[in-house]
Amino acid sequence: MEQLFKIFRFTTEDAKALEDESIEPHIHDFEELIIGNKGKISHFIDFDDETVYAPFVTFVTQGKPHKLRPQTHNDECDLWVVRFRSEFMSETIFKLYGYFHNRANITLPTNRCFNRLSSLCEMMYDEIQQTNPNLSIIRQLLTTLITMVYNEKPENLELETDNAHSQTYANFLHILEENFRRPVKISFYAEKLFMSERNLNLICQEVMQQSVGEIIETRKLTEAKNLLINTNKTIAEIGFELGYNEKAYFSKVFKRKTGQTPTAFRNEMKQLISE
Known about the structure:
The structure is a single chain. This protein is of the alpha+beta class. The chain has 12 helices and 8 strands. α6 (164-179) packs across α8 (197-208). It starts with a strand and ends with a helix.
């Protein structure tokens, strides 16, 4: 996805048009958040096939294979589909990873909550339709929406996710969020969690199919993208802020992970935002 942010509404007519279409498992190069007001979805993800009835919230992180079919229920379907690049919400994206890491679909019981979520989606949609949409406004609205989803967590969710590995991974993400800017080693995180590096790696591989080092690097580069887009700091300043003592090494890591130099990425994003 070239844009930083995209939102659209998926209606009853859209769902009926898909009834006879074949949907194959696929991966995204963006984050996807679906707010289900009416209808249902059939969702295959994390080797599990689940039918989820509205009201629900679904989050699919980039790179995770899945197959999702929106469907009508009581002859109705109404979904808001929000897609965004991770750097657009770098301050929040890892909280989403932690909240949804072992459950892509969460059913929320309160209609009041969904009325407010729908209102926020409508405001984001209205803003993105403007000739010169203000991405800062959209970011604030999306942050508010995500905060509301956190606060509406079902009371039994902790019981459903009472798994030692899931809890360890969530604790790791919390420690990571406080320390990813520091030039600390994997052993630092393992010691904070009172375990060996090997066991921490095994847990991260089980939960996210990524090593500890990959998750740390992804967090650093997500923040790097945010700083490249939203500040005028130099490449060297950004690299130093994120624990890379040498500009050349930071640029090398950035290009290896993204396929672009930091400067090329910044120029591309500025062009996208100004269009």
